[in-house]
Amino acid sequence: MVKVYLHRGSLEIGAPPPVGADKLIAEIGHAESTDRLVVYYPESPDPVAGSFDALERTLFEMLSSALRAKLAP
């Protein structure tokens, strides 16, 4: 199960990922902002299966693109 962390200005939803966590990061604000969406595994993923698979990466890209479009100035 993955966890989600959203940071936008002074708004933070979820907990930041622990150091060394396997994560996907998308910048969702304008070029100068630090707005980002992060999904991560709170524990090490299964060493046999690996970390994020193709479907998880695709869903993350779709979600981050939708957020970027919605939050665009």
Quick take:
By secondary structure, the protein is of the alpha+beta class. It has one helix and four strands. The longest helix has 18 residues, at 54-71.
Please tell me about this protein's structure.
By secondary structure, the protein is an alpha+beta fold. It has one domain. It is 25% helix and 26% strand. The protein is built from one helix and four strands. The protein has a four-stranded antiparallel β-sheet, covered by helices on one side. The longest helix is centred in the last third of the chain and has 18 residues. It starts with a strand and ends with a helix.
List keywords for this structure.
alpha+beta, 4-stranded antiparallel beta sheet, 73 residues, globular, 4 strands
SS-derived structural category: alpha+beta
What overall form do the CA principal axes indicate?
A: globular
| Biggest sheet: strand arrangement | 2-1-4-3
Radius of gyration: 13 Å
Q: Tell me the total number of β-strands.
A: 4
Roughly what is the average pLDDT, rounded to an integer? 85
Helix content: 10-25%
- Terminal CA distance: 33 Å
Beta content comes to: 25-35%
Order of helices and strands: EEEEH
- Biggest sheet statistics: 4 strands, antiparallel
Furnish the topology, listing elements before pairings.
Layout: E1 3-8, E2 11-13, E3 23-27, E4 36-40, H1 54-71
Antiparallel strand pairs: 1-2, 1-4, 3-4
